[in-house]
Each structure stands twice: as C-alpha cells, then as structure tokens.
C-alpha cells in the first residue's frame, strides 16, 4: 500500500511569499501536495506566483507588522481552506552598515518585520494551529548563531525570533502544536545578492572562513526546509554544516569579531565611503 504524502490535504501559510525563500518554498510545498496560502507585500508577485503553483492556492496582500490585518488574514485563510496546518514565519528584510551611523528608522524596521512580524504571525495563526494540532516554523538564520558586524539589526532580529520560537514551543506542546526553527546560511536570493554589491559587506564575507562565506543555491536549501516541515522537525538546517555551527555557537561571536576587525577598520578609514551614512541604503527583502 502506497504511503500518503505527508502534506497532501494540508494547508500551509507562508509569509514573505512573494520572492526568495518564501516563493521557492511555496512551489515546493505545493508540488508535494499542500494547499498554499501566500502572504506578503508585493501583490503582483503574489498573484503571478499563485498561477505557477501546482495545487490549490490563494494569496493575501498583508504587511506582517500590521497585527490586526494578520488576524483578519488568519480568519480568512481558515474560512477558505477549512484548516491551517502549517505556518512558516518567513517574512524578512535586512540592511547593513556601521551601527553608530545607521538610520534609526531603517534599523528599527528590520526588527519590526523580522521579530515583531513573526510574533504577529504566531499570535494570529496560533488558534488555528491549536485546532489542527499543527506546525509553526520560524525561519531564522546563521545570523542567530553567529552575530556578524555591519548587520546588527538583522542579527538582533533573527536571534530574537529564534528565542521566541523556542519559548513558544513549550506553550504549544500540550495542545499538540509543534514548533521548529529553520537555519539558513547565505542563500541565493535578492536579499543576499543586494548586500554583496556593497564593498564593505563583500569584504566582510570574503574574510569569513569556509563554508560560511559561500552563497548556496536556493532550491536544495528550500528542499531541506520542506522536508523538515514534513517531519515537523524542531530544528531544520538548510545547509547541513549548520548543524555543526549550532553545536559550536558559543565560539562563533568571537570568531566573527576576529575575522571582521580588518574589514570594519577599512570601512571607517576609506575616504570614498562617507561614514555618516549607512553602508547599505535601506531594508532589502
């Protein structure tokens, strides 16, 4: 007797679904049999993606920092599909540059989207996940394991989102809700490619030890995330070596500081880079 695909008939909600990891995950989960609810800011991209997917899908144009809008979206998704079985808190943005010269509003926006957007997502969809005994997956990052200079807002937000998901896990467990955290290193998306065009961040990447400096292809990374969703895994590693980084995480901040000191010093001293401005102009994601 053939085993029923684990995602067949399940409804998966993905925030930040318009592009990058979110869009690729939507394609992968749909191909594996899930119904997919796309949530994001770029309405045209969401509409286009919805026409590509193999199975049943719909999209919602929502900013994850709008808690009330997310609550309405959660009710709408459950009403349309009848159940919410999987929620992937993927929406994220990034900006880079020296913290002491960063635009406070741009810095705060990264934390609002990456951390409070995840909190809003969990708050909105947790009642439905309790009803379905579902699975909540927080998309984190190598940045949660190894904080990196010039990316203070992104590192702070991803570390916070990771800790939030781990704390939420115990609160949902007795309801049958599983919670997981997915870790990704530099993966080939618009958000990763944009900072690579800036010299300081490019130099910082070049000084990182292998394999942390490499940019990894999107599809295999997302396939591993999708498999983790099927297994309702507590930890998901989009690049297998991140499992070792998890074990060594206590040593990683000091290692990152040692490798980055030269790049940061050069950024501050280079006359062609105005130190009063952030090295990367605004949030990308």
Ordered list of secondary-structure elements with their pairings:
Elements: E1 11-15, H1 20-31, E2 35-40, H2 43-52, E3 57-61, H3 67-81, E4 86-89, H4 104-132, E5 135-139, H5 142-145, H6 152-173, E6 178-183, H7 190-196, H8 199-207, H9 218-231, E7 235-237, H10 242-247, H11 252-269
Parallel strand pairs: 1-2, 1-4, 2-3, 4-5, 5-6, 6-7
Extended strand count: 7
As an assembly, this protein is single chain
Terminal Cα separation, in Å? Answer: 44 Å
In the sheet with the most strands, the strands line up as: 3-2-1-4-5-6-7
Q: Report the radius of gyration as a whole number of Å.
A: 19 Å
Give the H and E element order.
EHEHEHEHEHHEHHHEHH
Which structural class fits the helix and strand makeup? Answer: alpha/beta
Shape: globular
Biggest sheet: strands, sense, closure? 7 strands, parallel
